[in-house]
Amino acid sequence: MAAGELVAGLKLITDGVKALTGIADSIKNAEVKKVTIDMGNHVISLQTQMFDLLSQNALLQEENRNLKIKVDEKEDFKEFKDNLYFHGDVYWLLDEGDKPIHAYCPICADSKNLKIKVVKKYGSGFYWWTCHNCKYEVHHTEAPED
Ligand SMILES: [Zn+2]
After folding, report:
1. Ligand 1: distance of its center to the CA of 139 in Å?
2. Three-class DSSP labels, 15-63
3. In a domain, 145, yes or no
4. The pTM is what?
5. Domain boundary residue among 80, 103, 125?
6. Residue-level pLDDT, tens digit, the chain, 146 residues
7. What spacing in Å lies between the alpha carbon of 57 and ligand 1's midpoint?
8. Is residue 47 assigned to a domain?
9. Ligand 1 centroid from CA 72, angstroms
10. Is residue 17 part of a domain?
11. Ligand 1 center to 69 CA (angstroms)
12. How far apart are CA 44 and CA 39, in angstroms?
């Protein structure tokens, strides 16, 4: 049920309670008057429960949206990881023809599910792969051969 339909339904209930209150005021029989007032109070109680359920529903919808985003991120990362090849102590992202595109940090990928490219650096006469996220360093190796 859409929120607009619920709001319209709640308006009908509110109008019904007002009508019941008017009827109760005009009833002379005390027992019938009491039953009518009790019915009105019960409807108000149900209306309160409906508002609580609407509120819970909105929270659950938001939680569901957030969980779907997390699932999408996990699926996206799994697809990314399925296209990685471990070579020279770094992950290589391979294209559809299995050609290496870029090297990625294995520490960040394995422990934090992060796609962090390593950067080639030079120091002390050697080339290194360096991760700016976790500071992982390893001797540079060329991309794997086809
Ligand atoms: Zn890293």
Report:
1. 14
2. HHHHHHHHHHHHCCCHHHHHHHHHHHHHHHHHHHHHHHHHHHHHHHHHH
3. no
4. 0.63
5. 80
6. 566 777 777 787 778 778 877 777 787 788 888 888 888 889 889 989 999 999 999 999 999 999 999 999 999 999 999 999 999 999 999 888 888 999 999 999 999 999 999 999 998 889 999 999 999 999 988 888 76
7. 40
8. yes
9. 22
10. yes
11. 23
12. 9
